[in-house]
Design brief:
Strand content: under 5%
Structural class: mainly alpha
Largest sheet: none
Protein name: DUF3953 domain-containing protein
Radius of gyration: 11 Å
Organism: Mesobacillus zeae
Transmembrane segments: 28-47
Pfam family, one: DUF3953
Number of strands: 0
Helix content: over 70%
Number of domains: 1
Number of helices: 2
Distance between the termini: 13 Å
Order of helices and strands: HH
Keywords: Membrane, Transmembrane, Transmembrane helix
């Protein structure tokens, strides 16, 4: 389960980069915030 969350966080980060490239800043920053939170939870559950 934590590895699925890790890859989901990476996918959301990639979506944020794509949205930022297309100049959709609000959705890009939303994706970045959600992906960083998701990656933090994934790394925390892997090493805890």
């Amino acid at each position: 389960m934590p590895f699925m969350s890790l890859f989901l966080g990476l996918m959301l980060f990639g979506l944020g980069l794509s949205k930022l490239k297309n100049k959709h800043k609000f959705s890009a920053y939303s994706f970045f915030f959600i992906s960083i939170f998701n990656l933090w939870i994934a790394v925390y559950t892997i090493f805890y």
